[in-house]
Amino acid sequence: MRLFLTLSFLLLTLSCVLAQDAPKHLPIIDVHVHAMKVNPAFGGDMCPWFLKNMPGGDPGQPPPAFINTDCAEPLKAAKTDQEMQDAVIATMKRLNMTIVAYGDPAILRKWQKAAPGRVIPGIGISSPKDMTPKAFKDSLSSGFYEVMGEVAPQYQGISPSDMSLDEYFAAAEQLNIPVGIHMGTGGNGMANLTSPKYRASLGNPFLLEDMLARHPKLKVWVMHAGYPMIDEMIALMGANAYVYVDLAGFIWSYPQEEIHDYIRRLVQAGFGKRILYGTDLLVWPKLTEVSIGMIENANYLSFEQKRDILFNNAVRFFRLDESKFK
Ligand SMILES: [Zn+2]
Predict the structure, then answer these.
(1) Beta strand ranges found along the chain (DSSP E)
(2) Could you tell me the CATH number of the domain that includes residue 133?
(3) From ligand 1's centre to the CA of 237, what distance in Å?
(4) What is the rounded average pLDDT for all residues in the chain?
(5) 184 CA to middle of ligand 1, Å?
(6) Per-residue DSSP letter, 308
(7) Helix 287-296 to helix 256-266 angle, to the nearest 10 degrees?
(8) Residue 278: CB partners within 8 Å, gap ≥ 6?
(9) Do you find a cis peptide bond into 228, omega within 30 degrees of 0?
(10) How many whole angstroms from 182 Cα to the centroid of ligand 1?
(11) How far is the CA of 38 from the centre of ligand 1 (A)?
(12) Which of 8, 192, 240, 312 is such that its CA lies 20 to 30 A from the CA of 306?
């Protein structure tokens, strides 16, 4: 009887311990997620940091592969929308993440429903052909979208200061909505592969200056941190106190030493409080952990600097209520 009681007590204690929630992960905000329908034609596996070798090619030969799968453990692409959603939501809950996501409105709504309070929807335009300024302003005013992004005129051969985009930025300024603009890299051979209008020169952060001058109340973050134009990026941030950057895309595609040099340089130049963590999540769910690992393992950053990049800076930039993340 005594043994039975002791055993029961032990079991009870054990179940109480197990029932307690695991300690909550410190909050993370990912400002750059693409919520899109899974396309089986663009669903291959991928090796992170695949741009460590760009041997180029010959115009008479087939174009170089955009992605490389020659590594010990390629990341698997989700095969269905549901598989992608389940994986994204599970990661968000496990890592206590909130995401800023753009893309298919139906997918955005499903993700929001599955993870209430953790998905901040954004809507972007990349050329005036996408929608009229009036339709865009109506969408921004609907209350559903809280962010304007991803704005990517570079792929269309358009400068972000081109007057054809001005009314769209004016709408965001008027409605007090932050804007994320793609500036910088597009991957290996973008102009030869899928985007003949893509111009590397149109990723120059200085091209934002005229637009920023016309919209002094606009809050802009430069997606992909203008990689690889670090000097121009630093000069632009020095001159424009409201400009932030995100680390999306290049954090998992270029060689790791190159990525760390770029982040280190931004911090060294005094902009550690204006770097936002972003993945550029597409179809490979594990990309989130791989990319966050780059910040976690950056031994040149202090714990506080990592927390700024992974969370604090985004709270400030997007004017979020910090108490909601406790
Ligand atoms: Zn982009």
Answers:
(1) 28-35, 97-103, 119-123, 147-151, 179-182, 220-223, 244-246, 275-276
(2) 3.20.20.140
(3) 19
(4) 92
(5) 8
(6) I
(7) 60
(8) 30, 31, 32, 33, 223, 246, 247, 248, 249, 251
(9) yes
(10) 5
(11) 18
(12) 240
Residue at token pair 């009887």:
1
Considering its fold, how many domains does the chain have in total? 1
Number of neighbours of residue 274 by Cβ within 10 angstroms: 22
- Rounded to whole angstroms, how far apart are CA atoms 307 and 295? 9
Q: State the distance from the centre of ligand 1 to the C-alpha of 13, rounded, in angstroms.
A: 51
User: Residue 33 C-alpha to ligand 1 middle, in angstroms?
Assistant: 10
Q: How many residues does the chain have?
A: 326
Angstrom distance (rounded) from CA 228 to CA 32: 18
Checking if the pLDDT of 99 tops 80, the result is yes
Residue written as token pair 């054990």: 14
Q: 174 lies in which domain range? A: 24-54+61-325
Q: Is residue 113 part of a domain?
A: yes
Burial 68-84 (b: 16+ CB within 10 A, else e): beeeeebbbbbeebeeb
Say if 133 falls within a structural domain: yes
CA of 246 to the centre of ligand 1 (A): 10
pLDDT, tens only, 198-230: 999 999 999 999 999 999 999 999 999 999 999
User: Which residues are within 5 Å of ligand 1 (an ion), measured at CB?
Assistant: 182, 223
Report if residue 13 sits inside a domain.
no
Question: Tell me, what amino acid is at 253?
Answer: S
* Pairwise CA distance, residues 234 & 263, whole Å: 11
Residue 39, pLDDT > 50, answer yes
Give residue 47 CA to ligand 1 midpoint distance, Å. Answer: 19
Instruction: Please give the distance, rounded to the nearest whole angstrom, from the Cα atom of residue 249 to the centre of ligand 1.
Output: 7
Report the pLDDT value the prediction gives residue 21, as an integer from 0 to 100: 57
How far is the centre of ligand 1, averaged over its atoms, from the C-alpha of 32 (Å)?
Answer: 8
The rounded Å distance from CA 81 to ligand 1 centre is 21
